[in-house]
Design a protein that fits this description.
This protein is of the alpha/beta class. The protein has a domain of about 220 residues: NAD(P)-binding Rossmann-like Domain (Rossmann fold, 3-Layer(aba) Sandwich). It has a 7-stranded parallel sheet, sandwiched between helices. The protein has a two-stranded parallel ribbon with strand order 7-10. Helix 1 packs across helix 6 and helix 3 runs parallel beside helix 4. The longest helix has 21 residues.
Length: about 350
């Protein structure tokens, strides 16, 4: 077992959704010798860091430059969680994505390997491309065909790690549809829970895409939704284990968009009003009607904590975080997330 308390912890993307939730979970375990690495842009992402305990912060570009020029600069690091990336599926600047998501990850992975650090990095379920149902983390990487540049930049490093042997020295985390507190800064990349909450508050209704595939009624397209609290528990379990290679981080169960949004109305005490709108023509050929993670490897690695039921997770997120406009705070004991 890997001891997270030995050596400094580094979390890139530490002000983001998963990164800040990971720091929150580490703080709740009494760990705060943490170096946060990120790019604090013009959003309110910095608010995620306010309640958290950590030793220091460094800009992502400065972090990379220092470790390349002076590999010993950051002292005794024990674990590196590389969760920082441009995660926009609509980003069109291919050169930027390859530099930020691919080349940056290569530099960190080699630095970690040379120093024999525990290295975990965020891949993405988007690397599976148009595949649907039972998406397996044991599939042949060469067969995958990502549908956007973001996914391709992530896939390229998965391939690089496999070809260079880095995969045997690291843990890749293929996150599925993660939602929960600390995502307000993500703009159009926010989860539907956050978007729907604001739609209901402003208009009294939620808009969902109509179905254009026989066998799927409107709103019954299905996704593997996972509460961020569960995602970081899975991440920390793998970090402490001897797990290497690629792991899906998902619920292992698919739910409909209707199952996702109905608890939002209930949590807000609002009447249920759902409108179905036409899907943009440019999306129809790429739209997935079903995604579901295979989590056999995660279970084989000893993960046993039950996933928070979707309706419970949505209600907690809305009532404890969205309505009062709160961020994850290790000093507060709120809801299911704090007691499980």
């Amino acid at each position: 077992m890997h001891d997270l308390s030995r050596g400094q912890l580094v979390v890139t993307g530490g002000a983001g959704l998963i990164g800040s939730a990971l720091i929150w979970a580490l703080n709740r375990r009494g760990l705060d010798d943490i170096l946060v690495v990120d790019r604090l842009d013009a959003t309110e992402k910095w608010c995620n860091l306010v309640p958290l305990r950590y030793r220091d912060y460094v800009d992502a570009d400065d972090f990379e430059r220092r470790l390349l020029e002076h590999p010993e600069h950051f002292g005794e690091v024990g674990t590196l969680f590389h969760l920082g990336a441009c995660s926009s599926t609509t980003e069109c600047d291919a050169a930027f994505l390859m530099r930020n998501n691919y080349a940056y990850t290569k530099n960190l992975a080699h630095w970690a390997a040379q120093r024999e650090l525990r290295f975990l990095y965020a891949s993405s379920a988007a690397t599976y491309g148009a595949l649907e149902e039972n998406l397996s983390d044991e599939c042949d990487l060469e067969t995958l065909r990502p549908l956007n540049m973001y996914a391709y930049s992530k896939h390229r490093f998965d391939l690089y790690a496999a070809r260079t042997g880095l995969a045997q020295r690291s843990t890749a985390l293929k996150y599925f549809n993660i939602f929960g507190p600390n995502e307000q800064h993500k703009g159009e990349m926010r989860s539907l829970v956050d978007k729907a909450f604001r739609q209901i508050r402003e208009t009294g209704s939620v808009r969902l895409f109509r179905s254009h595939r026989p066998g799927y009624r409107d709103g019954e397209q299905r996704r593997d939704f996972l509460y961020v609290v569960d995602a970081v528990e899975m991440t920390l379990h793998l970090a402490q284990s001897d797990a290497r290679g690629i792991y899906n981080i998902g619920a292992g169960e698919a739910h409909t968009w209707l199952e996702l949004v109905r608890p939002i109305f209930a949590a807000m005490g609002a009447p249920e009003r759902i409108e179905f709108v036409e899907m943009p023509a440019q999306l129809r050929d790429k739209y997935q009607y079903l995604t579901c993670a295979r989590v056999d490897r995660l279970l084989a690695a000893g993960y046993r904590r039950p996933v928070t039921p979707l309706a419970d997770a949505v209600r907690e997120y809305v009532r404890e975080y969205l309505i009062p406009n709160r961020h994850l705070d290790p000093a507060q004991a709120l809801g299911t997330a704090a007691v499980n």
